[in-house]
Design a protein that fits this description.
The complex is a heterodimer of chains A (about 375) and B (about 425).
Chain A (H helix, E strand, L loop, with lengths): L5 E4 L3 H12 L4 E4 L8 H4 L3 E2 L6 H17 L14 E5 L2 H16 L5 E3 L1 H7 L9 E5 L3 E2 L2 H14 L3 E3 L4 E5 L2 E4 L4 E3 L2 E4 L5 H4 L6 E10 L9 E4 L2 H7 L4 E8 L5 E9 L17 H14 L7 E12 L6 E4 L6 E5 L5 H16 L14 H4 L3
Parallel strand pairs in A: 1-2, 1-12, 2-8, 4-14, 12-19
Antiparallel strand pairs in A: 3-7, 4-6, 5-6, 9-10, 10-11, 13-16, 13-17, 14-15, 15-16, 18-19
Chain B lengths: L1 E3 L2 E4 L3 H11 L7 E4 L16 H7 L7 E4 L3 E7 L2 E6 L8 E6 L2 E4 L3 E3 L12 E3 H9 L8 E6 L3 H11 L3 E7 L3 H10 L4 H13 L5 E3 L1 E7 L6 E6 L2 E6 L2 E5 L2 E3 L2 H5 L4 E2 L2 E2 L12 E3 L8 H16 L3 H6 L1 H17 L15 E3 L4 E2 H4 L5 H8 L11 H9 L13 E2 H5 L15
Parallel strand pairs in B: 1-7, 2-3, 2-8, 3-4, 8-21, 10-17, 11-12, 11-17, 12-13
Antiparallel strand pairs in B: 5-6, 6-7, 9-18, 14-15, 15-16, 19-20, 22-23
Helix pairs in contact in B: 1-8, 3-4, 5-10, 8-10
Classes of the chains: A alpha/beta (about 375), B alpha/beta (about 425).
The complex binds flavin-adenine dinucleotide (FAD) (2 copies).
């Protein structure tokens, strides 16, 4: 029996955003999740909504998404903790200052507000930064949200539009047109969306997704310690340019006055058959220590805040760092919305719009090819 | 500063001290390191004076290598046989970071008080029963102050007696357990001479204080701080004006460090086998963290763990009957003072459940797992990391906080950098 027009597997921020968007298209949506809304990477990540310029494709998706977030803002409940914090990119030396200049030009040419800061205005913007930094770039319209409650809210909106959400249901089998969950129930639908994030390769074997672990630390309340999401400019090179373990200075003020300190990137080792190791949420103390030292190089006073908790999360990384959005080239009726690496919160709304357009055979507002799963999976 | 030892014992209460003594008697002469976050040994009950043998032991009476690190808080595990701690320098400066390596570690982290929320429980002047004791010991003058002690268990009597000895006017002790349960408990004490003795002594000293059984606080009110408490006594509500309300609903195991160390926690206790080995490699656990058992039980388990850690398995086994007997006593206590069901409905939806993050009872109620309540309602996200509100959420809603992330106690961010083998602990934790 047909249970829905579309079944979405995964109620992370991606699945929830897609559920809301597809419901508003009038589709009958069923959302299945093994746990609860936002339980996966969505509960572990930072929730920084940021325009990126590492490629035209990444720029288009992040900008379209950020604009969608700004449109959504008036409807978001207070617990979404939406804040127009802006991003402050910090340049430590001349080379990074040049990078800031390029970024500035790139964004300005495309109509995105951005402002170069000299060392004095940099410290004026964030007095806890150490003296002697080269400068910075302020992108004032970047945002921050608290991802898991936003995911739950998006799903709630979908339900108001007629969607059904069945939480605590682990999908054990995905076939063309049908999904089986752990208790043996079967759900049928002409369209199935794999929004399983770091688990999507278990649901659809053959997806080239690797887990990339990240560490974060939250401090006790220290109101006014910082005002923007503050990130070092070396971040992009480090994050994307290599497979090696890396750390970067990246902090975020929470509305409670707490400070969230990030971040690290470590690929899960894979064996010769390409299998990852079992999920290990444990802290890697050596990389956590590196991450803290890196942060304290930029903001020495961070070292004196009280750390309450450290934890880890996993990003779902694709070979080219772009997400997989669109039909699976070989499995009829299967759609992918996964592989968002470190930008899934940002890109959730853009992903949902793109997927909805593709499913309805409308022309998307941004070109869909760069995200098409067939680029990495080959054609049908 | 780095330390290394054969046996690391965390917690210098009855369990930890007995573990140290038992291990020190081994012919293998293991090196023993005892640490506690407090300046002095003794744990909760012997804080003002541990038995003389403990002092002699730490002075080296058993001719084995044993040392005590005071004001030392274990923060996290660094590997199978290493932990990170915050400690002081030998001259008392700090805190500084220390890495401690060991062969076996014994967790003896004891218990903490259970609070149960009722309207007004967050007003200034409403404190824990143990908390009241600590406040007075650290200088709060209660002479002539009107106080009410409420909650459950023998601890109420001890606290009331102590407050009275410091000049407070204890208006009433409200024990929620029904009178019949207390009578049954008193009768069963006959089989346990030392405990019975303690109990009688306390009652005698408190003869002039009204001891109400089947009575519990339902509301505290006041403008800026508590001015009166309403006690439900049978079918009447009695309002008592007071300056301080000391509340304790029994004890719950202190499982936070064990959870951070990777030990399995079930039903709010550390899971161990019959020789006190936890599910985490090289980690034993003794005393109240395994379940509330009282000081005798903590002592026996400490001894067992000390013997087992020093390789003396048969002698450890021989203590099993004594331990079983002590646990039976604990079970008696448990059933006599088990919180009645009315206590779980005292809080109204807008009564705070998590004080650190101001989360109300009504906000937590919709969630079916601790993790979901934490992530979506922010319960347990603050500086106590669920140590206080976790047991409340378990009691009210059956949520199970069995998981914890490092550090085991709030600590300067800099300490997390000292976990790196490349860093030089003891100096600035941030130095390369
Ligand atoms: C440390 C860190 C920092 C980050 N910071 C940012 C940031 O600042 N900005 C940003 O935009 N992004 C950030 N991210 C990335 C972002 O968190 C993720 O990209 C995003 O949350 C992914 O969402 P998702 O819905 O794809 O995955 P998830 O949230 O992991 O959701 C997948 C869901 O699928 C469910 N599921 C899996 N398998 C099954 C099954 N078999 N049956 C049923 N359900 C199943 C899971 O229960 C889960 O709820 C960060 C990530 C990390 C780790
Ligand atoms: C608030 C309170 C008041 C009490 N008052 C009484 C009383 O008046 N009379 C009575 O009979 N019983 C009382 N008890 C019960 C009594 O304490 C126990 O029965 C007995 O002490 C249990 O012994 P233990 O060794 O298991 O734990 P404890 O005596 O609690 O010892 C545990 C020790 O471990 C230390 N510790 C915990 N975590 C760490 C860490 N991460 N790093 C380093 N050190 C750590 C603590 O500082 C503590 O000193 C009280 C309990 C509590 C919680």
């Amino acid at each position: 029996m047909r249970t829905a027009d579309v079944i979405i597997i995964g109620a992370g921020i991606i699945g929830c955003a897609c559920a809301r968007r597809l419901s508003s298209d009038g589709l009958r949506v069923l959302v299945l999740d093994a746990a609860f809304p936002g339980a996966g990477a969505t509960a572990a990540g930072m929730g920084h909504i940021v325009v990126m310029d590492d490629s035209q494709a990444m720029f288009s998706l992040t900008l379209a998404s950020r604009e969608a977030w700004a449109r959504l803002a008036p409807d978001l409940p207070p617990r979404a903790e939406y804040a127009a914090a802006g991003t402050l990119w910090v340049a430590a030396d001349q080379e990074e200052l040049d990078a800031a200049g390029h970024k500035h030009a790139f964004l300005r040419e495309r109509g995105v507000k951005a402002e170069l800061l000299d060392p004095d205005s940099l410290r004026g913007a964030e007095p806890n930064l150490r003296p002697g930094l080269a400068g910075g770039l302020l992108v004032p319209d970047d945002l921050v949200v608290y991802p898991p409650t936003v995911a739950a809210w998006l799903l709630g909106q979908a339900v108001r539009l007629g969607a059904r959400a069945v939480m605590g249901s682990r999908v054990v089998r995905v076939e063309s047109g049908r999904v089986t969950i752990a208790d043996g129930s079967v759900f049928e639908s002409p369209a199935i969306v794999n929004a399983g994030g770091q688990w999507s390769q278990d649901l659809t074997p053959g997806l080239p997704i690797r887990r990339r672990k990240g560490h974060l630390v939250i401090t006790d309340r220290s109101p006014g310690f910082c005002r923007h999401q503050v990130i070092e400019l070396g971040y992009i090179k480090k994050a994307h340019a290599s497979d090696e373990d890396s750390v970067a200075f990246n902090i975020q003020p929470r509305p409670t006055g707490q400070v969230l300190i990030g971040s690290s990137r470590q690929f899960d080792p894979i064996d010769e058959r390409g299998h990852g190791r079992p999920l290990d949420h444990g802290i890697d103390h050596a990389i956590l220590a590196r991450m803290i030292r890196r942060a304290a190089e930029y903001m020495p006073t961070l070292a004196g805040l009280r750390a309450l908790r450290a934890w880890t999360g996993f990003r779902a990384a694709t070979p080219d760092s772009l997400p997989l959005i669109g039909p699976h080239p070989r499995i009829p009726g299967l759609w992918l919305a996964t592989g968002h690496e470190g930008l899934g919160v940002t890109n959730s709304l853009g992903t949902a719009d793109l997927l909805a357009d593709l499913m309805a055979a409308r022309t998307p507002t941004i070109p869909a090819e760069p995200y098409s799963p067939s680029r990495v999976l080959g054609d049908g | 500063m780095d330390h290394s030892c054969d046996i690391l014992i965390i917690g210098a209460g009855p369990a930890g001290l007995h573990a140290a003594r038992a291990a020190s008697r081994s012919t293998r002469r293991p090196s023993i390191l005892l640490v506690d976050e407090n300046p002095s040994i003794g744990g909760q009950i012997w804080r003002r004076g541990a038995p003389a043998w403990a002092g002699r032991l730490l002075a080296g009476a058993n001719a084995c290598s044993i040392s005590y690190l005071s004001s030392t808080t274990v923060l996290q595990r660094l590997g199978p046989r290493a932990v990170l701690a915050s400690t002081l320098t030998p001259s008392g400066r700090g805190p500084i970071a220390a890495r401690i390596t060991f062969d076996t570690v014994i967790l003896a982290t004891g218990a903490r008080e259970l609070f149960l929320p009722f309207p007004g429980w967050t007003l200034p002047g409403v404190v824990g029963a143990g908390g009241a004791q600590a406040l007075v010991k650290s200088g709060l003058d209660v002479t002539g102050k009107r106080m009410v002690v409420a909650g459950s268990g023998p601890l109420l009597l001890a606290v009331a007696g102590f407050l009275r000895s410091r000049g407070a006017l204890v208006a009433a002790i409200a024990e929620q357990a029904p009178p019949a349960a207390i009578r049954r408990f008193a009768l069963s004490l006959a089989g346990y001479p030392t405990k019975a003795f303690q109990g009688l002594m306390l009652r005698a000293r408190l003869a002039s204080v009204p001891y109400w059984t089947g009575a519990w606080p339902i509301r505290a009110t006041g403008t800026d701080r508590i001015e009166r408490v309403t006690i439900r006594r049978g079918d009447r509500d009695v309002e008592i004006p007071c300056d301080l309300l000391a509340c304790g609903f029994g004890l719950v195991p202190s499982i936070h460090l064990a959870a951070v160390m990777g030990c399995e926690i079930r039903d709010g206790r550390v899971v161990t086998d019959d020789l006190l080995t936890t599910t985490a490699p090289h980690v034993l656990c003794a005393g109240e963290a395994n379940g509330i058992g009282g000081v005798e039980c903590a002592a026996i388990e400490g001894e067992m763990a000390g013997l087992a850690a020093a390789g003396m398995i048969d002698p450890a086994r021989r203590l099993l009957p004594a331990r079983a007997r002590a646990r039976r006593f604990a079970a008696l206590l448990d059933s006599a003072f088990a919180p009645r069901s009315e206590l779980s409905s005292l809080a109204s939806p807008d009564t705070i459940l998590c004080r650190c993050e101001d989360v109300t009872t009504g906000e937590v109620k919709p969630y079916t797992t601790w993790r979901e309540a934490k992530i979506h309602a922010r319960c347990g996200m603050g500086s106590c990391q669920g140590r206080v509100c976790g047991p409340i959420a378990r009691y009210l809603f059956g949520l199970d906080p069995g998981d914890a992330r490092p550090p085991a106690a709030p600590v300067d961010v800099a300490f997390l950098a000292a976990a790196d083998p490349g860093a030089i602990p003891g100096e600035s934790p941030l130095s390369e």
